[in-house]
């Protein structure tokens, strides 16, 4: 239809009415690049299931791109590329820009911890002819989803001599797995009466871990045999579980979903799906004008506490020390810094349409989701980004063909959630939440769209290189 044939109403509508476009409509040529990009993203997922795994894998990528280890107090100069390894559980990648750092740092912050089952300090027992390992779940899980699925054990143990050993069982195809039992439907009468949230209780999340006795004479011989197998493999005793950090995570590998291969199912998209684009974006930069920083935080799923969570002073200490090294005022640096708090959004799901308000929901394949505010019950506990800052970010995205959309987390008063945004903005840094929409968030196997993942990479590159 030519312009002449359009009615005045149609023309006015084009001018005034916002129409959300999918990535297919807005950037039809991105598909091949997005699919190729996500092959490496799947490797990151398979190698980065816990914060320790993700930190180690990311350091490898950073070193391969010329990043060197940074220690607080080190001298820095323009062009330097550093990684700061916070206790093997959180990582800061940064490049010193060519312009005055007092113009501010372009920061992105994602998290690399994901919901899972952590092992208790005194975990091993036997019952009913089986050995079990007790867990305390980490983060917001629907407990019933963690039964009857393949689980792997990841983490570390400190031995009595002070040495530490890394533990990983269940990721190779011929490794044994761990498993949480569920009741058969035939005998589930009592379970069916319960609220779905109580169908499996926290103390039922016990890992089935063996059934062979060490001998037929000793008491608790099945437990003893399990401890012996741990001792044979790692040199550890039961006492060493008390100085360990072990987690059961889904043993699934990242796989494509759908015949068109447009989606990826994996454990831990929340929030590796934002962490990975941060890394690829910063590794793609050679000589940025602005100083740029990618943060991979720990402990987001339990409130960002502790020295590896986003509330740690390590964040401001790094900014203070690099500012001081350049002879600049860290308070001015922070006040002019800008941040994308990079965390996943809830993708609209037509199977649960009642939980969403569709005009303000993130749609799959419609690009990354910008949440001006999060929170719950009247925006409580939110970082509410200013309209000015959202306007600035919107322009960066639009100028660089980033497919993006605005969203909230579900209907008003349906629930809610938070991110690290508020812990960064309270340091006097303009911050807004941006992330990839996820289907079945916090489930053992979550789903995202490849085009959305790729747009997250495009978004971070655009943000880091914006004037
Ligand atoms: Mn998250
Ligand atoms: Mn989460």
What ranges have pLDDT less than 50 throughout 5 or more consecutive residues?
A: none
The CATH class label of the largest domain is Alpha Beta
- Give the strand content: 15-25%
Number of structural domains: 2
Give the ligands present: manganese (II) ion
Q: Which strand order do you get reading across the main beta sheet? A: 1-2-3-14-4-15-19-17-18
Q: From the coordinates shown, what is the CATH architecture of the largest domain?
A: 3-Layer(aba) Sandwich
Give the distance, in angstroms, between the N- and C-terminal Cα atoms: 38 Å
* Proportion in helices: 25-40%
The main pleated sheet reads as:
9 strands, mixed
Number of helices: 12
**DSSP strand count:** 21
> How would you name the CATH homologous superfamily of the largest domain?
Zn peptidases
Written overview of the protein:
This protein is an alpha/beta fold and 467 residues long. The protein folds into two domains: 12-114 and 267-465, Zn peptidases (Aminopeptidase, 3-Layer(aba) Sandwich); 116-250, Aminopeptidase i, Domain 2 (Roll). 28% of the residues lie in helices and 24% in strands. The chain is built from twelve helices and 21 strands. The protein has helices spanning 8-16, 23-26, 31-47, 51-64, 189-193, 221-234, 269-283, 314-325, 330-335, 387-399, 421-425, 450-465, and strands at 68-69, 81-86, 90-95, 105-111, 116-127, 130-138, 151-158, 164-169, 179-180, 206-210, 244-250, 255-257, 263-266, 291-297, 338-342, 345-346, 368-371, 404-406, 430-435, 437-438, 446-449. Strands 1-2-3-14-4-15-19-17-18 form a nine-stranded mixed sheet. A seven-stranded antiparallel sheet has the order 8-7-11-5-6-10-9. A three-stranded antiparallel sheet has the order 12-13-21. Strand 7 (151-158) and strand 8 (164-169) form a beta hairpin. The longest helix is centred in the first third of the chain and has 17 residues, at 31-47. The chain is globular, with a radius of gyration of 24 Å. The two termini are 38 Å apart. It binds manganese (II) ion (2 copies). One manganese (II) ion (MN) binds next to loops.
